[in-house]
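Deliverable D4.2, example record:
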Amino acid sequence: MTVVSEYTELKQSLHTLRDYLRWGMSEFGRAGLFFGHGCDNAYDEAMVLLAHALSIPINSPPELLDARLTDAEKDTVLNLFARRVSERLPAAYLTKEAWFAGLSFYVDERVLVPRSPIAELIEKGFEPWLGGVFPRRILDLCTGSGCIGIACAYAFEDAVVDLADISEDACNVAQINVARHELHHRVNVVQSDLFGALAGERYELIVSNPPYVDEEDLADMPEEYRREPVLGLAAGRDGLSITRRILQEAASLLTDDGLLVVEVGNSCVALDAAFPEVPFTWVEFERGGHGVFVIDRPQLLAYANAFTVAGGSD
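Output generated by the structure prediction step:
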């Protein structure tokens, strides 16, 4: 492997993991990188890339930082760092791995990098909103990598889970992750434009992290986010074009007391403004994150007219 020319001389002065960790942090700072895809600082990002390049656990003992690298290992690390800087690729796309709800997932540029606060809800079994009920059928709508639905399959061991996405590319990545977690027996991948290919199905729980970025935020995104598929981000002028459709259609696929959980991020303000009469329950997270609401089927039916009337706005 040939290292990028501007980094060649570094190999003569950098020798240990600690050397490369320190230099990587400085290089990321000089380049003005943005962190928001699993890491929120240069130290963690550099450690993720180092661990991947050297095939060592991310939680290795601190004394390992003083171990020296071979020339081939130095080249691998420097090339990874160079791509992170020059291409602005999130680390997860370079390592082909992201973690969600304590589980490892394959990711590449065909899907968003998992980062939803819904992970915390899954770990808590969606309590108190499920009221102790263990759902037997779960839908992960706009599934992307499949991380939410697969994590739900771990949380509810008797549940059958459908992963649905309009993108064929995303469905292919989700299939990789179903195989990775050996869940073919109860996790299905369905290519579907929202509920289009799911007619007749009924779910106790529908969870969705749909596209919800509005036009203004989309235009202002850091370069790292522009490496993700725009299909998984853009949702019209106010970020609600997909969420409106979900609110209109979800009741027909939920069981009588079924629960709908949707992430809308910063578009939560626009959602409350669009439907001021609807009592959305906004989840408060202990580990950070916002913009996730919970609503049940009786409420969806009670406010069906509001969702229909506002359906044409975006």
